[in-house]
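anyone seen this seq b4? input:
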Amino acid sequence: MQVPQQLPLPPQRGQELKITGTYPKARFFSIAVYDNAPVSTGIADHLFDAQIVPDPGSINPFATPDLGKCISSTPHHWGRSKPSEAPDQAYTITVVRSTKSNDKKSNDNVLKLNADTGWLLYRLYLPNANESSMGGVPLPEVSITLKNGQISQLPICPIFNRQSELVPVQAQIVPVQLEYPLDPEGGLDVPPVPDHIWFGALKDPPPLLLPNPDQKYLVSFFMPEYEPDRLIVIRGKMPGYPDTYNGQPVSQPAKGFKAVQLRYWGACLGELVSPLPIIGCATDARMPLDRHGFYTIVVTNDVLRPDWLPQTAVWLPWGDETNVPKLIFMRNLLAADDFSQSVQEAIKRGCWFDLPFPTPPTQEAIKDAGECALGVMGDYYPQAVWCDRTTFIKRGWRGCFRAADMPVWP
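predicted toks r here
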């Protein structure tokens, strides 16, 4: 799950914007500033959880692997916390406008905004089990120090905004082509996709979409023609991820893994139509794996998960059955330095394509980037095919892969 929070950020020169919060119980969180609002032109600065220095007397649980052991064995060593209490987990971040006199950060928790306006965006991925959508803590508080030294406390943003509240901004962020993406007078050209579906890596995601600088994406675009008797099958090996969902630190791999290779893995299906809706997502912690560590994702047009789909597969809904272009994107977040089969590594080796958003790339560009990425990522690269529903029901994913002349392994 991703819960982004954003607000326009127009600090005056000489003023400071302070963010005070508590480290959430979640897989990942970060705070980033993007230059120019409402249309972002690029990332200005950011900090992710392990980089955020705690307040005096507090600790950062993302940078303290043995936190639980330390609390139970030597609680009196944790600053101002009482022996019977867990240590505080608070942080403070300052956002300032970048000038020639302050180009270097005065401390580790300063974010620089380069433009006259910008976006402040708070991200949170996958809260722990039995925690709220915000990881068991309230949203950070934001205040501005005025020129006279007074502090102005800004109202806390809601966790979810009404669509009506987003309309004034949406029109400036979402390109006009996406209002009617298949309009022959000015819509999108999304060519048909062959049975073998390729995913390509994005080196530089569109700044307009406020991308997460801590992760890289594999993306595929799908034809707008709707065929109700067909489905999509995706197979790949799951990288090792942390067991934070069950309350363990980010350094602790989930059961069945020897090491943490990615901080987070996820796959989502969306639509290239205003307001860029996300139809469904699958996350690593809720992904059933076979004995070889492979996942299976099946995309169908059913309203509910179909009864014939085995429990070993994750289901994603197709969504709108009208002629709306689709895309699937996969996230690789904070790859370990020694994990050589990540999307990050594929991009380092030149396996990527350009995305002139909102225009989709050609299938040839995606295939070229995908074949290159497959050579780098190996089993961790997602293999995907179109398949007839009856073929999957009778023969499973192997039957679908054989029908598309794809290798069936393991």
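The chain is about 15% helix and 30% strand. Residues 68-84 have pLDDT under 50 and may be disordered. kinda curious what u guys think
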